[in-house]
C-alpha cells in the first residue's frame, strides 16, 4: 500500500509527512536567515524610535516657540508655582488654608460674640437694653 501511495504522489510524500505532524527538516541556511531577519527587525525598530524621538523634539521646539511668543508656561511650571504659592503663608487672605491660621486666632469665638452683643446693646434704647439683659 505504501508503495502505491508513493508512486501516486510522487515527490510530495515529504510534504505529506510535514502536514501530518512529522518533523520538518531544517536547512542549514534557515538559522542564518532567521538571525538576519531578527537583526533587520531590531534595526527597523531602532530607526523607528529614533524617527519618533526626532519628531517629538521638533514638536517640542515649536511648542516652546509658541509659549515664548504668547508668554505661556508649561503645565509642570504652573503646577510648581501653584504649590509654592499654597505653601507660603498668606497673611490676611480669605482663602488661606486652615493650617496657616496663627495660633490663638480661632480660639476666641465665644468672647467675640459676647462683645458684639454688648456693642449692639449699647445702641438700643434703654427699655430694650433692660429686656435683653434679663
UniProtKB/TrEMBL annotation:
Lineage of source species: Eukaryota, Metazoa, Chordata, Craniata, Vertebrata
BP terms from Gene Ontology: regulation of neurotransmitter secretion; synaptic vesicle exocytosis
A Pfam family of this chain: Synaphin
Cellular component terms (Gene Ontology): cytosol; nucleus; perikaryon; SNARE complex; terminal bouton
Metal-binding found in the keyword field: no
Entries under Gene3D superfamilies matching the protein: Single Helix bin
InterPro entries linked to this entry: Synaphin
Record-given protein name: Complexin-2
Record key words, sorted: Cell projection, Coiled coil, Cytoplasm, Exocytosis, Neurotransmitter transport, Nucleus, Synapse, Transport
